[in-house]
Amino acid sequence: MIDKGDHYQYMFNTLQMNNGFGEFSDIANIAGIGKTDWSWGGLLVDLDNDGLKDIMISNGIKKDIRNNDFLNGLQAKLKTDSQEFYEMAKLAPSNPLPNYVFKNKNGYEYENVTKKWSFDTPTFSHGISYADLDNDGDLDIVINNMESKAAIYKNKANGNFLKIKFKGSDKNKFGVGTKVKIYYDNKSQIAENTVTRGYFSSIEPKVFFGLGKIKTIDKVEITWSDGKQNSLTNVSANQELVARHSAASKIQKTQSQPKPFLRLLNAAELGINYKHKENTFNEYKKETLLPHNLSQNGPFTAVADVNGDDLEDVFIGGALGQEGVLYLQTKEGTFQKSNSQPWRKDKDSEDLEVLFFDADGDTDMDLYITSGGSEYLQGNKMLKDRL
């Protein structure tokens, strides 16, 4: 959380995109949902029935106890005033905030439609939930507001839909944990039957799919938590199906070895035989409170096309006593050491951040190297940056 001006607080949301090889990237700022005031509950749900999950976030805090103007004034009063802290805390600002709604545009970009969709009434909202309250095929919203009436928003979406209700086993009557995947028009959607949502909120034990203009689902695959499955084909839109565990069957799956999406090459295979060699130096003798040894950060690298062949080359900086190395990329995708290594004479400086850029405007890439480490005292010429 950070302060923004005098009165506003922003919560940083995260939106994790699966990169497909065991890693995720946070794209919240790129997607346009990075900061949403004092947030409580968040819903990921298709509100306009277009087949893409939208985002709704409840906002507001009755007493803005993170307001810096108030906190500074409170500290001053505590030094001169004998009032109880609780009484003084009542003086904290109280500003209602609108909730947020973001329309999913293409899977990873969102548009703030708070005002367009009439969710811009300032409130102190906490709990938030959804359900098709009027059974018209879209999801209505219920929001809890502090010291005010709860709000119910009627949805007026027009797209097609599919709802699925569950008749589970004796020990799991609502089918909690059941996964549903639907296939249509070379696309798919997946949902899991879990009722917990947002902040102290829950939904009915059903799953909902918005379908846009799609009228027929090619396949509906329902997988219960014990592994049994129901499979339906050519399912018409705009209805509520009832999935029954008693009609599911056990599916035998063969284990196949997945093919790797990418193969991680080691540096030697690429022709890069650089080996970083840290010098021996104990910074803790000089600075006992350091969180870690700042002179042992490892090599810094920079990438650019330095010889104008439209292939990216790489520079690797060296530690104190070790020269940096420039590797040029070949047409085969491997690398070889450049014949020109002018930084050899600077090996007694410890290379830190490195950057390629056109310093003199002659349309080729120049290299800037910063020097650092704690081995040298302030003012030593070995701490000078190099271009």
Protein described:
The protein has 387 residues and is mainly beta. Helices cover 7% and strands 35% of the residues. It contains four helices and 27 strands. The strands form nine sheets. The chain has a five-stranded antiparallel beta sheet, with no helix packed on it. Strands 5-6-7-8 form a four-stranded antiparallel beta sheet, with no helix packed on it. It has a four-stranded antiparallel beta sheet with strand order 22-23-24-25, with no helix packed on it. Strand 3 and strand 4 (24-26) form a beta hairpin. The chain is extended and about 75 Å long.
- Judging from the principal axes of the Cα atoms, what is the shape? extended
Unreliable segments of 5+ consecutive residues: 1-10
Helix and strand composition category: mainly beta
Write down how many β-strands occur, each being a DSSP E stretch of 2 or more residues: 27
Give the integer mean of the pLDDT values. Answer: 88
Percent of sequence in beta strands: 25-35%
Strand order of the largest sheet: 14-13-18-19-21
Distance between the terminal alpha carbons, to the nearest Å? Answer: 38 Å
